Amino acid sequence: MRRKDREQTEEFAWQVADAAPFACLGLVTPEGEPYQVPISPAREGNCFYFHCALEGKKLDCLAVNSKVCLSFVTGVEPIPEQYTTRYQSALVFGTAYPVTQEEEKRLALKRICQRYAASAMDGYQEETNRLLSRTGIWKIQVESITGKEKK
């Protein structure tokens, strides 16, 4: 990292990833162009799960290059009079794999629901049963994570 004064620990980076309301998933299109899309990932150990449709541009990208990047940002606070912005960020590099086993798909959807719909967990199994066959689940195996903070 160029700005060593902003570099944070790996533990800090995991905390930012866990606290961020969403992440941006960076991919490369089959034509070699950059492509980024917001997702709602949930962490399980050193992996992130995300759900998606069974077809589309994300999957087209992943079919030709499974290397991905996730960016997370929290604590964004513009400071106009100083022409800057405070923030905390985490950047993840890893490899994405389709989840094919039903047990792992259910675990992934449970983690996603626990993160984004914790107050509605009583109905998640019924919803999972209803949507499982038409929902794509991907697992990102983290290869590196870095954290940064602008105070």
TrEMBL record:
Record-linked PANTHER family: 5-NITROIMIDAZOLE ANTIBIOTICS RESISTANCE PROTEIN, NIMA-FAMILY-RELATED PROTEIN-RELATED (PTHR34071), FLAVIN-NUCLEOTIDE-BINDING PROTEIN (PTHR34071:SF2)
Species of provenance = Candidatus Egerieicola pullicola
InterPro entries hit by this protein: Pyridox_Oxase-rel, Split_barrel_FMN-bd
Q: What is this protein called?
A: Pyridoxamine 5'-phosphate oxidase family protein
